[in-house]
Amino acid sequence: DGLVVSEKVKSNDIDVKVPKSELEAEEKAEEERPRESDSNILDLSSDYPRDKHISIQRHLADLEKLADLREDERKPCPLCPEEKFKACYSHKLHRHLQNLHWKVSVEFEGYRMCICHLSCRPVKPNLVGDQTLSKMGAHYHCIICSATIVRRTDMIGHINRHVNKGETESRFITVRAHKSSYKVVKESATDVQVLPNHSTPQKTDSYFNPKMKLNRQLIFCALAVLAGERKPIECLDAFGATGIMGLQWAKHLRSSVKVTINDCNENSVKMIKENCHLNKMKVKLNIKEEDNDETVGNGEENSDTIEVTKMDANVVMHLRSFDFIHLDPFGSSVNYLDSAFRNVRNLGIVSLTSTDISSLYAKAQHVALRHYGCNIVRTEYYKELAARTVIAAVTRAAARCNKGIEVLLAVALEHFVLVVVRVLRGPTPADDSAKKVRYLIHCQWCEERVFQKEGNMLEENPYQQLPCDCYGSMPGKTAVLLGPLWSGALFNTGFLRRMLLEAVQYGLDEALSLLKTLVCEAECTTLKHFSTHGPGDENKQEESGVYIRTPNTSTESYLVHGKRKSEEVLRSTAKRQRPEHSAEHPPFYYNIHRHSIKGMNMPKLNKFLNYLSEAGYRVSRTHFDPMGVRTNAPLAQFKTVLMKYSAPTYVGAQAEGPVHLPAEIQLGGEVPAAAAVKVEEAELAGDDEPGVGSAVFTQSYPAHCAAD
């Protein structure tokens, strides 16, 4: 009987009166009836949504039906409590519903979410009384997730977030949006579908950052170099998101790589598979999914296959072995380093991108100590300090697995820190790598720095290791101990040159200019001396007027197959690496603006590099800082050369005291001509550095000199 009553009530309209006994019988029947399946909930043939709140209506007439307006009776407002709005006649109630509820509603797909004043929303108790309580209880009911939002603008933003995430079809049910709501982005001949909020995603959304294009190009070049050493290689993108990186690997390197894209988010995995279909790639399915999903390709000759997995990144790296692993999680990568080095093959490559720059760049020093076990402070070379902090954590994780590392590349830019290392299996390489993790002594007065000497013996005065004498001339303690940090090289010149060739081959323009700077920085040389060779050199290529020596694969490439490497090959590798260590680039750099002299105009940066080189020091620019100088010169010699070739700013110096002109400038009528010549020479120099030495050469004269 209860079931018959329930069907009778459903067949009636909302304006039909139902006796109270029948309503109680219906509620009892609803409790006893089994719950409908989710497939029925998603059926959109019925009125959407099925269990909406009474404040959500399509038309104003539907809202008036709730009030049961009659001219001869007083009726209360269905969306207001009696203490807020007393019962009134139909004409007044109609104006109340129209002006207070309907006009301030939020519209979505033909429905209006009217403001509700009922006691649906829990309100904190207060001492004022019921009037304030009812005023604070005004809210909106979300048509999708049944949330209660107070402000109208917040409700609009709440609905937009549902739309961006694809949750637009049913209440409490997360459903993918239609394909037309996605945006297709193209990068490096690869198309990917992204959500409309890909630039500002939620925590559960797939993330695509166009600003990381340079990062993706550098990783692709590193993988292309490894693919030239041995084929095929198994590579893993542990945090796929949209799958853009793995798709670029498979699309350009083809049969040289076997790509696996992993993500633990179900929505991201679905998006990765759709992007594989969009780029005409086959998807290698799991056994459980073979019956439901279909692969791409109607008999065409496309043999490219990408394996897509839905697991935790640590689980994937524990279960399988890879030649190339890339880690790019949200924030720090330290939670995945042990798993990455557990099964990575010998002479394989592990690359990791860290985006927790607030801790790495010493803005949150306690977080750096917690994640990396490293004490750092804000210095002029903070970006290189961040790179060495990450490499130190990588070294310790590899050493725990009896593996050593060779740093191939370390880049620290505005948004990320990228580290690429080669894995060397065995306890001997692990011990050699662990010995390069040392502490750094940093002077807080002049910012001079030096790595602490090797050994376990305590020194009576560790300040003696610093080249500066700030400890003797300044009161108190002047230096801090930073680290432990990686003290070895940050770049491998041969590997960078091969990456440069790959960037030329695939037309990666953004990575090309950076790689040229990195090669110069690795060799600690200026750009004009970059890879210039005689005409008899057979292994060279020319690109943009720059000769690039191609590596001799018989001596530089690792072409050894199998799990274990023989002792002879290890010895030959060590012998080849010895001359590189002797010419290793000096650690850290100096900022020319940080050490400028007050009242002096600095020389152009390229000219200053030449002056340091003429003084007998190794110099180069650095990608860490556009105004940084990497050199093996001590800070005192650096300042001496800078002072020697800096010109006084005569305008500022005239106000303070007499001007001492340089010896080559003579007094009299020839001074303006000499000044004009210097200005013209500075303009014709053609240096591109902004802001250095660009002040106009001006001179103010006393009144009697002007009269003469």
From TrEMBL:
<dbReference type="InterPro" id="IPR042296">
    <property type="entry name" value="tRNA_met_Trm1_C"/>
</dbReference>
<dbReference type="GO" id="GO:0016423">
    <property type="term" value="F:tRNA (guanine) methyltransferase activity"/>
</dbReference>
<keyword id="KW-0819">tRNA processing</keyword>
<keyword id="KW-0597">Phosphoprotein</keyword>
<dbReference type="InterPro" id="IPR002905">
    <property type="entry name" value="Trm1"/>
</dbReference>
<keyword id="KW-0863">Zinc-finger</keyword>
<dbReference type="GO" id="GO:0005730">
    <property type="term" value="C:nucleolus"/>
</dbReference>
<keyword id="KW-0808">Transferase</keyword>
<protein>
    <recommendedName>
        <fullName>tRNA (guanine(27)-N(2))-dimethyltransferase</fullName>
    </recommendedName>
</protein>
<keyword id="KW-0479">Metal-binding</keyword>
<keyword id="KW-0694">RNA-binding</keyword>
<keyword id="KW-0832">Ubl conjugation</keyword>
<keyword id="KW-0489">Methyltransferase</keyword>
<dbReference type="GO" id="GO:0000049">
    <property type="term" value="F:tRNA binding"/>
</dbReference>
<keyword id="KW-0949">S-adenosyl-L-methionine</keyword>
<dbReference type="GO" id="GO:0002940">
    <property type="term" value="P:tRNA N2-guanine methylation"/>
</dbReference>
<dbReference type="GO" id="GO:0008270">
    <property type="term" value="F:zinc ion binding"/>
</dbReference>
<comment type="similarity">
    <text>Belongs to the class I-like SAM-binding methyltransferase superfamily. Trm1 family.</text>
</comment>
<feature type="region of interest" description="Disordered">
    <location>
        <begin position="19"/>
        <end position="46"/>
    </location>
</feature>
<keyword id="KW-0862">Zinc</keyword>
<dbReference type="Pfam" id="PF02005">
    <property type="entry name" value="TRM"/>
</dbReference>
<keyword id="KW-0820">tRNA-binding</keyword>
<keyword id="KW-0539">Nucleus</keyword>
<keyword id="KW-1017">Isopeptide bond</keyword>
<dbReference type="InterPro" id="IPR013087">
    <property type="entry name" value="Znf_C2H2_type"/>
</dbReference>
<dbReference type="InterPro" id="IPR029063">
    <property type="entry name" value="SAM-dependent_MTases_sf"/>
</dbReference>
<feature type="domain" description="C2H2-type">
    <location>
        <begin position="142"/>
        <end position="162"/>
    </location>
</feature>
